[in-house]
Design brief:
The complex is a heterodimer of chains A (about 110) and B (about 120). Chain A is mainly beta and about 110 residues long. Chain B has about 120 residues and is an all-beta fold. Chain B contains no helices and 11 strands. In chain B, strands 2, 4, 5, 6, 9, 10 and 11 form a 7-stranded mixed β-sheet that branches. Chain B is globular, with a radius of gyration of 14 Å. The termini of chain B are far apart. Classes of the chains: A mainly beta (about 110), B mainly beta (about 120). At the A-B interface, strand 3, strand 4 and strand 8 of A face strand 4, strand 5, strand 9 and strand 10 of B.
Chain lengths: ~110, ~120
């Protein structure tokens, strides 16, 4: 599975847009990019998944450049409740084995 | 939909005892479930893959005789920590993939079980 690199931590204020970038230089042709969110003492929660270009859902947007060597999770107008750890995972189609990296600890301040 | 539950949510036990943790997929069937362990301030680490009706597949470095996994049905997997010791204290999380999901590789995680061994 492709290794991912993310910033260890990020700070933001309520109402701002937060962009978390993940590098995955060794991504394979059949790899998908998936982001999970984890609150303290809870299991991770699926946020968004994409293969190329841009994907948007009610929670976030995922931007993937043409070379797919990186991806950016965009959280619009964050609130205090968005304080969590965000994990970027890369893996083949229908992969069962998820390898979590260090994740990015996002702290949102009032 | 796609809810995974765990029981208990937390447990405290004495060193040397065994603890069983249940993982259930409430509204879908999961032929495969996964068990992770997470230490404070660290990422999730996959321990084993639980396959319904067959033996679990353990990751390198995980003792299969210490962490017994049973996948008795399409909605239930159990993890038993045998002869628990303080170093086994951790946050144990299970997950399951909804084979009917249109999202590639999407796994749904349980809320986790915090184990404290005294």
């Amino acid at each position: 599975l492709a290794k991912t690199t993310q910033p260890i931590s990020m700070d933001s204020y309520e109402g701002q847009e937060v962009n978390i970038t993940c590098s995955h230089n060794n991504i394979a042709t059949n790899d998908y990019i998936t982001w999970y969110q984890q609150f303290p003492s809870q299991g991770p929660r699926f946020i968004i998944q994409g293969y190329k270009t841009k994907v948007t859902n009610e929670v976030a947007s995922l931007f993937i450049p043409a070379d797919r060597k990186s991806s950016t999770l965009s959280l619009p107008r964050v609130s205090l409740s968005d304080t969590a750890v965000y994990y970027c995972l890369v893996g083949p189609y229908n992969t069962d084995k998820l390898i979590f990296g260090t994740g990015t600890r996002l702290q949102v301040f009032p | 939909g796609a809810v995974v539950s765990q029981h208990p949510s937390w447990v405290i036990c004495k060193s040397g005892t065994s603890v069983k943790i249940e993982c259930r997929s409430l509204d879908f069937q999961a032929t495969t479930m996964f068990w992770y362990r997470q230490f404070p301030k660290q990422s999730l680490m996959l321990m084993a893959t639980s396959n319904e009706g067959s033996k679990a597949t353990y990751e390198q470095g995980v003792e299969k005789d210490k962490f017994l996994i049973n996948h008795a049905s399409l909605t239930l997997s159990t993890l038993t920590v045998t002869s628990a010791h303080p170093e086994d204290s951790s946050f144990y999380i299970c997950s399951a993939r909804n084979s009917g999901s249109s999202l590639t590789g999407t796994q749904y995680f349980g809320p986790g079980t915090r184990l404290l061994v005294l």
